[in-house]
Amino acid sequence: MAAYLLCLTTGGGVPLFSRTKGEIKTLPFAVIGTLNGVHMFASTHNIELLATQTKDAKIAWKVCHGSITLILVTRDDGGSDACLRHLLAAVFDAMVLLVGLDDLINIKNVERLKRELKCCYKLIDCLLDQCNSQVFGDLTGAVDVVLGQENTLLQGALEGFVEYADSTYGCLLVRGKVAVATKKWWGLTGMELVLISLLVSTLPPGSSRDIPVFLPQGSPTVPHRLCTLQLTAGVEACVLCGPAPSLARLSDELARYWRPPYESVRSLAQLHPRNFSHHLRIDPNILGFVLVNTEAHRCLCSVQPRHEDSRREGSNLSYTRRRAILRSFYKHTIGHVYAPPRLKDDPNLGPTDDISERLLHRPQETYMLFDAYKCYSLQTAVYRLFVLYGAQIPHYALRSVTRKTLEILTKDKQVRL
Amino acid sequence: MFSSVSYQTGCQETHASKSGLNLMKFGEMLIQPGTLLQYDWYKSWEGRESLLSILHRNMHHRKLFGLLEEPLLPVQFSSSDVQYKIFVSGRSGVGKTSALAKLSGNEVPTMHSETPGIQTQVVYWPAKLVQTNKIVMFRLHFWDAGDAALKKFDHILPACKENADAVVFHFSFTDRGSFEDLPRHMARIVSPSDNTCKLVLGTKYDQLAHSDVTHQELREFEQQYKIPVLKIANIANYEQSELQTEVHEVAPVLNTLCEYLWRRDQVAAGVLQTERQTDEQRHSDEDQMVLYF
Ligand SMILES: Nc1nc2c(ncn2[C@@H]2O[C@H](COP(=O)(O)OP(=O)(O)OP(=O)(O)O)[C@@H](O)[C@H]2O)c(=O)[nH]1
Ligand SMILES: [Mg+2]
């Protein structure tokens, strides 16, 4: 999906930065001016221009706190407006995360703000570059997790370590996916959870980090320190803390808390890329799935659900392709069939093209059939499950296998999303 | 929630240099490479066996160690461990994060993305001492801070400097300004009297053709400040062969760094003398040797 993202000051229409995705020319300055111009023209007439559509592209606008205008131009991939709005909200929150709300609202010096925003590029590019992402959190607004078995030991170690850090916010990340977290960590908003995990996985690998972050909803003007410490390849202990203790102190104390459960940490690392415990077995026709817990803001995805290579089972869909199909299925379903998750700062502004808002009932299941694969989804009060099947599964089996899968993934006593 | 981290907003200039240009010697003295460590040892049989502990089985890539892990040298080699903290300093975009990726055997980023805070990396390097023939496993803990973040948030510079054994100042061969700014930059970060090792690392050495810093200038810099200038090319080398792994590219930098750190420890322990001490002796003794044991 090729895309342009433009960021301007709302007051003066001064471009702050622009990002492009895909092999496309940069937008001429005049076009940027026009895109901003129509939006300004509308707002002088008390009209909020939200989105529009050309033959093959979609354009969406978002004004954040009356000071920053974001414009997103993407190829029309059939996704709903809800997904575009979600992406724009995520981009702004990414800016808040690393720069802080104050500097975004009170723009005293545009050149300085431009320089400050540079540190967000990587995270924003990652949000735009959806298909290459290994995770689904950016799309679902629910943070990616791994479901392991030995969680009590790890939970104990985490609680102790977080307490030492004089904090209540901490988690254990396996390649950007949450394995265990403190209660407070789960109290962060879905967007905060997703952005923090994404930030950690976009940074170059390192033994430890100490990154000042502003929580977009919880603490947008007061920074905290996000400290990450690598226990073994791919596994990082993260805490959100105040001025003390220093990163050096945290490293010094690391072994005290994490040496005892070291073997569990190692086996946790092995869960990637399947992402869920090997004792849970699901139907061999399943090539991949995304399971979202909309209440807890957690999502579990896997495109390698089988131990052995499921490509041998008559499907030649690469893992990247599986991810792309699941993303596309999700984007077609949310907004068009299922109601989109509500965004905190984005009260639903009037009608959109999203069919879900015009439906008189709440659809429970939906599916799409293609020559090479089949997609089936169902939702309950809490869960939404999207499953990708190989073509060989008979149509009539889709519903029952999908229901069974939801059962397996949510009813286990030891591991549960 | 909890008390906050302080940070700068608005337009004030932080870390303005209070001390003007300081032309004192920052370093203690230059060491003739190979005086304390055997630079080519890693190519020997014993050296290669030792390198195995920090390499993957295919010998092409470095093993990456979590903070709970460490390499194991073959048991028959009697060895000791030492650890050091090294602060990596320099302008934004000069190549600190890239150099760290190169030195640690990680993938080198091709695009500049500002480091939004502190990022550290542990690098293990086995080396052999000239004097005692002992093998030492150096644990080098590098601390890299994005320059913009360092200026915006007050706690970052002190955290990086605290208990640092060495500071590696970076300049880029393609940015003359970054070279000329070194003395002022060094004066902002360290004082000539403090006990840290100081080294300079020139990045983008592969772009030497576009460089306007001459070797003569580097030599003069070394002599004036008594600080060694090292060079690095933070690019993936596609011509690696069985014997010529990425480790060979970074070995000179790591060896030099370890040699200076080792010397500092020896001076502190009273085993070696500093140049100032030796200067006094030189009046009576016209010996030209650099080091006294
Ligand atoms: N050709 C070449 N490019 C390099 C070299 N070292 C760094 N670069 C490039 O220089 C740019 C900046 O590198 P970084 O390592 O991210 O810079 P930094 O010093 O960490 O910058 P801050 O985190 O902002 O303080 C990147 O685009 C690198 O690819 C080098 O030795 N050769
Ligand atoms: Mg950097």
From TrEMBL, chain A:
Residues 285-413 form the FUZ/MON1/HPS1 third Longin domain. It comes from the Eukaryota. Its main location: cytoplasm. InterPro entries: FUZ/MON1/HPS1_longin_1, FUZ/MON1/HPS1_longin_2, FUZ/MON1/HPS1_longin_3, Fuzzy. It is found in: Cytoplasm, Cytoskeleton. Residues 4-126 form the FUZ/MON1/HPS1 first Longin domain. The keyword Hydrolase does not apply. Keywords: Cytoplasm, Cytoskeleton. Residues 166-258 form the FUZ/MON1/HPS1 second Longin domain. Transmembrane segments: none annotated. The keyword Glycosyltransferase does not apply. Belongs to the fuzzy family. PANTHER family: INTRACELLULAR TRAFFIC PROTEIN-RELATED, PROTEIN FUZZY HOMOLOG. This is Protein fuzzy homolog. It comes from Priapulus caudatus (Priapulid worm).
UniProtKB/TrEMBL annotation, chain B:
It holds the Pfam family Ras. The keyword Protein transport applies. Gene3D superfamilies: P-loop containing nucleotide triphosphate hydrolases (3.40.50.300). It is found in: Cytoplasm, Cytoskeleton, Cilium basal body. InterPro entries: P-loop_NTPase, RSG1, Small_GTPase. The keyword Ribosomal protein does not apply. Belongs to the small GTPase superfamily. Rab family. This is Ciliogenesis and planar polarity effector 2.
